[in-house]
Write a structure and sequence with these properties.
Helix content is 23%, strand content 32%. The chain is built from 3 helices and 8 strands.
């Protein structure tokens, strides 16, 4: 398929990174990365292999509201892209509703943008362009 994108990670909303990371280390066999705070997105994150754990910085953040409404669980699916701007333009032109018309800084310094679940079968989808090493 032209323009195929690999799965980058899946994200799980949790109440506490410290409490959840042990389980995901055990399940995945990967050690957690050091926690990273993303103030602009209202979360602390760490990764256990391909699983990103999201802890809200407060109840009034997007992940805080998600936890209050749905409890802990799958938050989003992320696909890797090599040209996030071109992908956003292409998706928008095909009627996909964008949450982010322009990418923002995400975990690990990557560029990220989210697609609205109304356009993606009810699943929050993130596009991720890795930062240059």
């Amino acid at each position: 398929v032209e323009g195929a994108r690999d799965l980058d990670h899946v994200a799980v909303a949790v109440a506490s990174l410290e409490e959840a990371a042990g389980l995901f280390e055990f399940l995945s066999g990967h050690l957690r990365t050091p926690p990273e705070t993303l103030e602009a997105q209202g979360v602390r994150v760490c990764f256990c292999g391909p699983v990103e754990l999201l802890e809200p910085l407060g109840p009034d953040t997007a992940v805080g509201r998600f936890l209050a409404k749905r409890g802990p669980g799958l938050h989003h699916v992320a696909y890797r892209t090599h040209d996030i701007l071109a992908d956003l333009e292409r998706l928008s032109s095909q009627g996909v509703e964008l949450i982010d018309a322009l990418p923002r800084r995400g975990a690990r310094g990557h560029h990220v943008a989210f697609l609205h679940p109304r356009s993606t079968g009810g699943i929050l989808v993130e596009l991720v362009q890795h930062a240059a090493p």
